[in-house]
Design brief:
By secondary structure, the chain is an alpha/beta fold. It has helices at residues 15-27, 47-57, 73-79, 92-108, 128-136, 147-155, and strands spanning 3-8, 30-36, 64-69, 84-88, 113-117. A five-stranded parallel sheet has the order 3-2-1-4-5. The longest helix is centred in the middle third of the chain and has 17 residues, at 92-108.
Length: 157
């Protein structure tokens, strides 16, 4: 069985994230969406809220599970017996960072493979940062995040 981990802060989960998750589901037997605590990024949403958002957004995918973590990603991979990391690439600007992270993970655990997937063109511009910026000014985000996530944010939960 091929288990892949799709890690991120998911602050909040966007249609771009969901696009990558759907693509990964077509490639791997199981996809674990791993929500990082990542206090350095000063997330807008609490970790449990981000986990709940990811679970709501992926509820229709039988081969997706969601976990939270606050360890090294390689340690989570060991714990979940996974050796594939899925990452999304939106633009060339993402590539340098993702390349460094892939090499860092492989230096810690040689068996780890990092697979990069591109979102569809309609989702390529979406980032959690953009969504958070729009939210700060009470802007409309329904076209940027899954409807379940938008409703959860509107409820304030």
């Amino acid at each position: 069985m091929k288990r892949a981990i799709y890690p991120g802060t998911f602050d909040p989960v966007t249609n771009g994230h969901l696009d990558i998750i759907k693509r990964a589901c077509n490639i791997f037997d199981e996809v674990v969406v791993a929500v990082a605590e990542n206090a350095e990024k000063k997330p807008m949403f609490e970790m449990q809220q981000r986990i709940d958002m990811a679970r709501l957004a992926t509820k229709e995918y039988a081969n997706v599970s969601v976990v939270g973590f606050n360890t090294l990603l390689v340690d989570l991979c060991d714990k979940l017996d996974a050796n594939i990391i899925v990452r999304g690439l939106r633009a060339v600007s993402d590539f340098e960072y993702e390349l460094q992270m892939g090499y860092a993970h492989a230096s810690l655990r040689q068996e780890l493979e990092t697979i990069h997937l591109m979102p569809s063109l309609k989702n390529a511009f979406i980032s959690s940062s953009i969504v958070r910026a729009i939210l700060r000014y009470d802007g409309k985000i329904d076209h940027l995040v899954p409807i379940e996530v938008s409703e959860m944010i509107k409820r304030g939960s």
